[in-house]
Each structure stands twice: as C-alpha cells, then as structure tokens.
Design brief:
Blueprint: H1 10-17, H2 21-28, H3 36-49, H4 57-62, E1 67-72, H5 81-93, E2 97-102, H6 107-119, E3 125-128, H7 134-142, E4 147-150, E5 160-163, H8 166-179, E6 185-189, H9 196-211, E7 221-223, H10 228-238, E8 247-250, H11 253-266, E9 275-280, E10 293-296, H12 299-310, H13 314-319, E11 322-324, E12 328-330
Helix pairs in contact: 1-2, 1-3, 5-12, 8-9, 10-11
Length: 340
C-alpha cells in the first residue's frame, strides 16, 4: 500500500473518488484504459487530499540528466537552509541531484541563474515566491520545464505553488499581539520591493490591525535587509520618536534578534517595555535573551513536497497545482501583555 509521509494513503483517494485502489493507481500512472470521467474524479480526489505518490517511476524514467535546479534568494543565515536540506534529501532518495543557485533578492539576476541552470541540464526548477521577472516564467514555459514556487501558494498554470499565505501570517502575528492587549504597534520588515513574501506580511499585519481600529498611518514600518545590524538600526529608528511602540512584529527572526540586541544595549526590557515577535523559527530564535516568540514556517514540508511534485508525471502535475501549508505560532519569552 502506497502511503504518503503525512499519512494519506492511496486507499483514501480511492474512497473519496468512489473507485478501487487499482483504478487510482492506473490513473496516477497515466494508464489510458481509465475513462475520462473516472480519471477526473480520481485526480480531483488526489488534489483535495494533497496526495502525492512517493515519486513517479514514469516521470523518473523520462529524466535524462536527473538534475533539478533551485534558485533561492540567499545563503546567508539559515533562512532557506531547512527547505533546501529537505528538498535535497527527498531528491536523493530517487537518485536525483540538486543544483543550487542564489538570486540575492534580484529578480533580473534570478532570470540569469535560471537560464544557466537550464543550460546545465536542469529538468525542473524550484523557485521562491510568486514575484519573478516575466522572462523567467516565459523561458520555463517555452522550454517545458516543470517548476514549483515555494514560500507562496499562488501560481499561474502550468507552474505549481507549495507554501503558505504570507498575508495570513501577518494577520496571525497582529492578532496574537492584539490579544495581549497591545495598542501601539510597529513593524520591522524585509525589503518589500520585488519581494511578495515580505510585502504580504506587511499587508496582513496592517490589515488585521486596521480591523481592530488601529489606523495604518499610526503603525510605522521600517524596512531593512535581513541581518542583525539592520534589525538593531530599525529598532533604534522606532524608538527615536516621542511615542514608542509596545509591540514590534519583525519579518524574520534575524531582524528580531537585532531588535532584541538594540533593546539589551539600550536598557529596554523585553517584554516588559516592548514585545518582539519574529518570523521563521530559526535556530537563532532560541539563542536570544529572552528567546523569541515567532511564527514557524513549514520549511521542511515545503522542501519535501516540492521534490515530490517535480518527480510527478506530466498528467499528475497538471491536476495537482497548489498546496497551502500551515504556519505555527511558537510562544517564548520575548512577548507579553501590554505595559500599563
């Protein structure tokens, strides 16, 4: 019996599609003996359950170079390390190699990296986010290269998206801080230009605060590159005015660690004077003092599912198009109730 790592079995698909497991297997292996109506029913059931077989023999046999390329924004810190490790481990199980490149958050440079990876024989691509140079997507489509967008669950066909809702993540962060009684907020965000992930978190955070009666113009947002120095500098900016926030949402744990560093050096007690919320749940979140409350990204699951997707057959990829994963709030010592 074929079983997914998350517990979904082929028989579960069969039950939902009201057919036999053997029929499901034939459909997922592109056997032409199954009628159109049953085929569509099976593929809809598989998509609804998020069922992806542990590799597709048909797809793997068709691979000539057995190379998959991935372009991530940066190798600095551990922001994408967990996803890449999981992606590579899953591909290695099927003797497929990963070629890794970086874009430095530049969508034009990303296009050049994608072009080079294709020239080197990459038969599928893993990218980050929904915002890309139109030439990148056009090239992938022209060459019929399967691709998966991660850190987002929005993609235009024929590409796929496996990730999470960044706006929802921003709203989750805002709601958590609101429930602690805070009314004066700020945000330290990553650079939002050409970065739909950073922009989405800002939009979601401000939208949720607006629903609670907190005017957007009253919430300062400071953008910075993802490093500790930028986080500290942003926190200094936020506390240079007459009125200080009591809660700060940071678009990454790296920025949040910098914010905590500034507070420590300035004699501001966290969370007594100000609560700090991070994002990602990187290892550094447990190394700050106090440890960071943060929103955990499903990085390992993203990598595994992205690898599964590129190893599917063309028929399977056509019907299993996108998958939204959940984020998780991890509460530690950097957040508390609003000061009175």
């Amino acid at each position: 019996m074929t079983t997914r790592a998350d517990g979904t079995k082929l028989i579960d698909v069969a039950r939902l599609a009201a057919c036999s497991p053997a029929t499901v297997s034939r459909v997922l292996n592109d056997n032409p003996s199954v009628g159109v109506e049953v085929r569509e029913r099976v593929l809809r059931a598989a998509a609804e359950l998020g069922y992806v077989p542990n590799g597709s023999a048909r797809a793997l046999r068709s691979m000539q170079t057995r190379l998959v390329g991935a372009v991530i924004p940066t190798l600095d810190h551990a922001i994408y390390a967990t996803m890449v490790d999981s992606l590579q481990a899953r591909l290695s199980e099927k003797h497929v190699s990963l070629i890794l490149s970086t874009s430095m958050y530049d969508i034009d440079f990303e296009f050049e990296q994608v072009r080079l990876l294709i020239e080197r024989g990459a038969e599928a691509l893993i990218l980050v986010g929904a915002r890309h140079n139109p030439k990148t997507i056009a090239l992938l489509n022209q060459r019929h290269i399967p691709y998966v967008l991660t850190y987002t669950f929005t993609a235009d066909r024929p590409g796929a998206a496996i990730g999470f809702d960044n706006e929802k993540a921003g709203r989750t962060g805002a709601r958590f801080l609101l429930d602690l009684g805070h009314r004066r907020f700020a945000m330290i965000a990553g650079i939002t230009h050409d970065n739909d992930r950073a922009a989405g978190r800002v939009i979601g955070f401000l939208d949720e605060l607006a629903k609670a009666g907190i005017a957007r113009e009253s919430v300062p947002v400071v953008e910075g590159v993802y490093n500790i120095s930028a986080g500290a500098a942003a926190m200094k900016t936020l506390f240079s005015g007459a009125e200080h926030p009591t809660a700060v949402f940071c678009g990454s744990d790296i920025l949040a660690a910098g914010a905590v560093k500034y507070c420590t050096e300035s004699g501001l007690k966290v969370p007594d004077a100000v609560s700090i919320l991070g994002f990602d749940n990187l290892e550094i979140a447990e190394l700050t003092s106090p440890e960071l409350t943060t929103l955990e990204v499903p990085a390992r699951e993203m990598g595994r599912l992205a690898a599964d997707h590129v190893m599917l057959s063309t028929m399977q990829r056509r019907h299993i198009h996108q998958r939204e994963l959940s984020i998780r709030l991890v509460v530690r010592g950097s957040t508390g109730t609003a000061p009175t």
